[in-house]
Amino acid sequence: TSFGFKEVREEEKSKLVGNVFSSVASNYDLMNDVMSAGLHRLWKDRLVSKLNPFPGMKHLDVAGGTGDIAFRVLGSINSISRGAMQDVVTEGLDDETRIYVCDINPNMLNVGKKRAAERGLGEDHSLLWVEGDAEALSFDDSSMDGYTIAFGIRNVTHIEKVLAEAYRVLKRGGRFLCLELSHVDIPGFKQFYDYYSFSVIPALGELVAGDRQSYQYLVESIRRFPNQETFAGMISNAGFQKVEYENLVGGVVAIHSGLKL
Ligand code: SAM
């Protein structure tokens, strides 16, 4: 019947979309490695080390895509609890740990869930995947100990709304951390970086991902994003205290941090 036929086609279509998305996600990973010479892994490690994850914590990783940050947070917590197996203070707290990965794109979340399963974390009840918009989070006020956003804030429509939401969902004492491509301001290095951004990145995009335009757009979006000081000011304006940032590779990326006190 036409109904059965349609069903099959729907199923094929979603399989197809799934495949396209897995290939986009693996292309995306490959491009991250190629463009940053593998450094994005170290930058993400650095972000999570600044977070100081602890057993029992409630953490929200926004624009969490394929789970890169969440897996590191969980890994860090697990290594603490394994080391403190006998410690009565942390005993049992593992059950309380919750790491929410929030992303607006359900396909990215599906890739993340698949990766969790591949890492043997498929049944881990501390990892939760939530479809949602950084500008209007579905989480309660003052419910999170930590908030991270890695390579996610540059492309949102209203940065202020994202910051206001981060502030709202954090508990007092909770930390906001943002890893983002930023601005290089070191003479000599800046010329090299400009050449790399405007000439090499689009060419690599074409070569590796067969997509020059998206990578040209990526470079332009980095230029449009507020510089380190301006962005720090925006974080303060959202209510955060002790706002600071750390430049990595001369400002190619920056980690901004703030506390809700
Ligand atoms: N955090 C991951 C990483 O560092 O590899 C993924 C970064 S990826 C460049 C950006 C992610 O932001 C995508 O998964 C995209 O779906 C998500 N995103 C874009 N706009 C968003 C929004 N308004 N709210 C939540 N997620 C968003």
Provide a descriptive summary of the structure in words.
This protein is of the alpha/beta class and 261 residues long. It has helices at residues 2-36, 39-51, 68-83, 106-118, 159-169, 189-209, 212-224, 228-237; strands at 58-62, 98-103, 127-131, 144-150, 170-181, 241-248, 253-259. Helix 2 packs across helix 3 (68-83) and helix 6 runs antiparallel to helix 7. The longest helix has 35 residues, at 2-36. The chain has a 7-stranded mixed beta sheet with strand order 3-2-1-4-5-7-6, sandwiched between helices. The chain has 8 helices and 7 strands. Helix 5 (159-169) links the parallel strand 4 and strand 5 (170-181). The chain is globular, with a radius of gyration of 20 Å. The chain binds S-adenosylmethionine (SAM). S-adenosylmethionine (SAM) is lined by residues 62-65, 68-69, 103-105, 108, 133-135, 150-152, 155-156.
Which small-molecule species are bound to the chains here? S-adenosylmethionine
- Supply Rg: 20 Å
Spans of 5+ residues with little confidence (pLDDT < 50)? 1-8
Series of H and E elements: HHEHEHEEHEHHHEE
Strand residue content: 15-25%
Distance between the termini: 63 Å
Estimate the helix proportion, in percent: 40-55%
Average pLDDT, to the nearest integer? 89
- Tally of contiguous helical segments: 8
Strand order of the largest sheet: 3-2-1-4-5-7-6
Shape: globular
Structure summary, number of beta strands: 7
Helix- and strand-based class? alpha/beta
Specify the biggest β-sheet. Answer: 7 strands, mixed
